Automatic annotation (TrEMBL), chain A:
Its cofactor is Zn(2+). Its EC number is 4.2.1.1. Zn(2+) binds at residues 66, 68, 125, 128. It is an enzyme of class 4 (lyase). PANTHER family: CARBONIC ANHYDRASE. It catalyses: hydrogencarbonate + H(+) = CO2 + H2O. This is Carbonic anhydrase. Keywords: Lyase, Metal-binding, S-nitrosylation, Zinc.
UniProtKB/TrEMBL annotation, chain B:
PROSITE patterns: PROK_CO2_ANHYDRASE_1, PROK_CO2_ANHYDRASE_2. GO terms for molecular function: carbonate dehydratase activity; zinc ion binding. Its EC number is 4.2.1.1. It holds the Pfam family Pro_CA. Gene3D superfamilies: Carbonic anhydrase. This is Carbonic anhydrase. Reversible hydration of carbon dioxide. It comes from Acacia crassicarpa (northern wattle). It catalyses: hydrogencarbonate + H(+) = CO2 + H2O. GO terms for biological process: carbon utilization. InterPro entries: Beta_CA_cladeB (IPR045066), Carbonic_anhydrase (IPR001765), Carbonic_anhydrase_CS (IPR015892), Carbonic_anhydrase_sf (IPR036874). Keywords: Lyase, Metal-binding, Zinc. Belongs to the beta-class carbonic anhydrase family.
Length: 244, 277
């Protein structure tokens, strides 16, 4: 590079540094105004409530939802501060007790045994990238962390491929979103401290499916009593509702 | 005890039947009288007593709230969202139905009081959010706690987020649990304590740096230090390290204090140099 080229490079570097600094500054200002908006519109207007909450949380719900930016339960179901203890992971998966420790079951243990929530709600959703990755996986291990996680839903994939073999790939993914959700509900019962509370009627397990294309919400509740009466391991549900 | 017997005798003597409410009232008055007596003898306990009474009031207030109908609660919440947000923003939700392109990956605690959609006003489409106990990030591992790695890989490699923010918070039960694990390491939970020990380095640092602070103050320090441990662990993920080195990804730490209504935000001073060719 000749001298003029070098000078140009220097100028470019300086410009980039200024742009980075501007980006950092914009981001800081953006986050600051977001927090101040919350403080003004919610916190200060409900100060006594927030002061009580600061002392203790007693949420009635534990919610397990996907990390997808479009499905936050605080937005779609309007949960307010203090109402719902929340886990968010890829594809809202709950692995069974025998698979060992996960981020999800550490939070489950806290919510069920310490906070003693009354409801667990697992929410699946349309166009789930995690479920799509599960349905697209090839047999050979790719070393992808995403696949190492979603492979926990492989039984749901097998069931989907059997039940929905005639459908196109998108429709199969949609089927798997609900199948995986139901598997997660059953996996919750593999935790002894969850099954104990469910059997005593102290804890309800619900599934929910949010379709953000049609904007509908479907909900169902695990019918533990009927499962026990019928002596089945298969999921039996009650109180199925759809709102659209 | 002597006080309660004397009162009962007085009421008996004047022929007054003690009702259930009276008995409950007597227990409460008795308890308050005992507390007042103690505080008059030991005035320095006033602050501690006030804090405990505040907590008790909050607990009783929350526990006394009406039982909810879960179906009704979900129905009301969803129909309100659909009417007030979804139907009023057809362009936004139309685009989101096709694809998401959030600029943020946010790690926040599962605590019911700290949802980033409230605290930072994130709207649908803005932030891919992971929530776990104490918003912790374990170091890179193909199998253990792979859920975290899956979320980071999806957000950074597939969604190409521009920022990762890890948010700790005040009165964090997970951090308190970490700080309460005895020095000999005995644990009593199945999963919780193994999880929170990801941030053992934060606990060690806070205990080593302590200048005689209370347990509560140590917990607050640990809440912030744990965020830094998580940020450091983020760099063990090769795709995070690459993106940070290329300056396509920024890492931020934060702490939300809902007792004082404040929010701290910081950068780590990272000196990432490209590997020599």
């Amino acid at each position: 590079m000749g001298p003029s080229g070098f000078t140009q490079q220097q100028e470019n570097n300086n410009q980039e540094t200024v742009t980075e600094a501007e980006k950092g500054h914009d981001l800081f200002n953006d986050l600051k105004s977001r927090f101040l908006s919350f403080k003004k519109n919610k916190y200060m207007g409900n100060l006594e409530h927030f002061q009580n909450l600061a002392q203790v949380q007693l949420p009635k719900f534990m919610v397990i939802a996907c990390g997808d930016s479009r499905v936050c339960p605080s937005n779609i179901l309007g949960f307010q501060p203090g109402e719902a203890f929340m886990i968010r992971n890829v594809a809202n998966l709950v692995t069974p007790f025998e698979n060992g420790p996960t981020e999800t079951n550490a939070a489950l243990e806290f919510a069920v045994t310490t906070l003693r929530v009354e409801n667990i709600l697992v929410i699946g959703h349309s166009c789930c990238g995690g479920i799509r990755a599960l349905m697209s996986m090839q047999d050979d291990a790719s070393g992808s962390l995403l696949e190492s996680w979603v492979v926990a839903g492989k039984n749901a994939r097998i069931k989907t491929e059997t039940a929905a073999s005639g459908l196109d790939f998108d429709q199969q993914c949609r089927h798997c979103e609900k199948e995986s959700l139901n598997h997660s509900l059953l996996n919750l019962l593999t935790y002894p401290w969850i099954e104990e509370r469910v059997s005593k009627g102290e804890l309800l397990i619900h599934g929910g499916y949010y379709d953000f294309i049609e904007c509908s919400f479907e909900k169902w509740t695990l019918d533990y009593l009927k499962m026990k009466t019928e002596g089945t391991d298969m999921l039996v549900v009650k109180d199925r509702m759809v709102w659209c | 005890m002597a006080t309660s017997i004397k009162k009962c005798m007085m009421l008996c003597c004047i022929g007054h039947t003690v009702s259930k409410e009276d008995m409950a009232g007597q227990s409460y008055e008795e308890a308050i009288a005992e507390l007042n007596k103690l505080l008059s003898e030991k005035a320095d306990l006033g602050g501690v007593a006030a804090a405990k009474i505040k907590q008790l009031t909050a607990e009783l207030s929350a526990a006394g709230s009406k039982p909810i109908n879960s179906d009704e609660r979900i129905r009301t919440g969803f129909t309100q969202f659909k009417k007030e947000k979804f139907e009023k923003n057809p362009d936004l939700f139309g685009k989101l139905a096709e694809a998401q392109s959030p600029k943020f990956l946010v790690f926040a605690c599962s605590d019911s009081r700290v949802c980033p959609s409230h605290v930072l006003n994130f709207q649908p489409g803005e932030a891919f959010v992971v929530r776990n106990i104490a918003s912790m990030i374990p170091p890179y591992d193909q199998t253990k706690y792979s859920g975290t790695g899956a979320a980071i890989e999806y957000a950074v490699v597939h969604l190409k987020v521009e920022n990762i923010m890890v948010i700790g918070h005040s009165c964090c039960g997970g951090i308190k649990g970490l700080m309460s694990i005895p020095d000999d390491g005995t644990t009593s939970s199945e999963f919780i304590e193994s999880w929170v020990q990801i941030c053992n380095p934060a606990k060690s640092k806070v205990k080593a740096d302590t200048k005689g602070q209370s347990f509560s103050e140590l917990c607050t320090n640990c809440e912030k230090e744990a965020v830094n441990v998580s940020l450091g662990n983020l760099l063990t993920y090769p795709f995070v390290r690459d993106a940070v080195a290329k300056k396509t990804l920024a890492l931020k730490g934060a702490h939300y204090d809902f007792v004082n209504g404040s929010f701290d935000l910081w950068d780590l001073d990272l000196k990432i140099s490209p590997l020599p060719l």
